[in-house]
Amino acid sequence: MKKIIQLSLILILACSASYSQTIPNNGFENWISMGSYNNVDSWSTLNDMTSTASTYTCVKGTPGNVGSAYIKLTTKTVIGMGVMPGIAFSGEFDYATMQPTSGFAISTRPQSLSGKWQYMASGSDQGFIAVALTKWNFSTMMRDTVAFTYHDLQGMVMSWGSFNIPLNYMNGDDPDSCFIVLSASSAYGAAAVPNSYLYVDDLNFNGTVLGISEREFANNITVSPNPSKDIITVTLPEFSEKFFSYKIIDLQGKTILNVENLKVNSTFQIDINTLAKGNYMLNIYTPSVISSKRITKQ
Fold this sequence. Notes:
Blueprint: H1 2-10, E1 31-33, E2 38-40, E3 44-45, H2 47-50, E4 58-61, E5 70-74, E6 76-78, E7 82-84, E8 87-89, E9 92-94, E10 99-102, E11 104-105, E12 112-120, E13 128-137, E14 142-152, E15 157-166, E16 168-169, E17 177-183, E18 197-206, H3 212-219, E19 222-224, E20 231-235, E21 243-250, E22 255-263, E23 267-271, E24 278-285, E25 290-297
Antiparallel strand pairs: 1-2, 3-8, 4-5, 5-18, 6-7, 8-17, 9-10, 11-17, 12-15, 12-18, 13-14, 13-17, 14-16, 19-20, 20-23, 21-22, 21-24, 24-25
């Protein structure tokens, strides 16, 4: 079901708000009996679709690493449907359109998503975890992306381990909605392979990223030329910290370039000659501010 995975990368940025301020059912303790199977409360999976073949890509695991339960996502071959990924969405999912329709409400700006996991991919498969924070724009009548992350699952983790995935902020706004995708398969839209799995427990948001001050900081950052074929010159406003870092991130959330602990200099250059043509985010990190600028490689 490559279509499902591709939509999860794009449409998480267009979800409406609902639910609570914290991650709903973040410990996966609450499950709803559907008779012959269980659905995890406040999350959407493919179980209702695959139940006609008595096959389930999401089941309740016990005991939890924290608490009494956890979520087990396993990619399986389903009769009449083909290979179906083990995937869960934090909200509602429309099976007719294969589009997520809602996330959960949030007004804070967390630094990262943490939790416990186990995972293993079959063959060339690879799972991922994606998060998007968005805000409704009443001028455009569309959702603006406030922050996102897309973390592919490298290697394997065969026993419970901890993870902490940072969020990449695009602006200084406060979000109003969040959407999380947990997938055992198909990082970057690749074909899913049966028996890949991802187990997750105890999801939490951590820390706080400053908001409006970032917008003021970002407004005084200049990037030129932009678009560019090779070298861009970045000019920063004055700030008190002695060091800063930067990342170039593609629009799927993958870090392309990561340079850390640079001494503060009001102007520096970046060679983007090796980047593929397209749009990217340049994130500037100081101890107190994270700011982003969109750049275009010609």
